[in-house]
Amino acid sequence: MNISLRPAARRARTALVTTVAAGAGLAGVLGMGGVAHAASHGPNGFVVIDSCTGVSGKIIYTPGIVKVAKRNVQAVLTGTTSGCSDIFTGAVGGTGTLTAVMHGTVNLSAENFSGTFTINWPAGSGWNPSNGSLTVTEANGLENVSGSVISGFDTGTEFAMQYVITGQTGRGTALHPVTAQTYTNTQSLTLSRNEG
To answer: Which residues of 144-167 are buried (b: 16+ CB within 10 A; e: fewer)?
Structure first.
């Protein structure tokens, strides 16, 4: 059963994240015997709220991508998530899905896209899907994903992931463009909140 956190529960959850982050910061300024030092304390920054260690799947391109000439392309990324966990409740059993619909003017050496995404969490979590916007930027063969959740579970968190292409259909020529690629993540899918 999918449920969304009620406003009071979400406020309590956010307060707990703040407390956890503040506790971590306090631990950094306390010395032996619990005596505070005069060192300054920096901002807490982003705290990972939810994550999945495994993400892999396929990307379909329409039209296909070629090596040199840039084309206006739609990309549909689908994947299976695993190893998901929550900062409060711990590990979440089972698998979920990640879907993203993206557009960009790209070639095989610069697959940079923007679009929207939906994370369907493992059924046992009881969480509603997380929906948001993202960008994908390629650097040295790694695809860096960043974005934010704008509705659903964990609204207001920042989305991040990194993946690498593991295979493709097509050669990247005008006659045989790349119409599909497989991928696997090289960094966990994370949803983080700024507690600075």
So the answer is: bbebbbeebbbbebbbbbbbebee
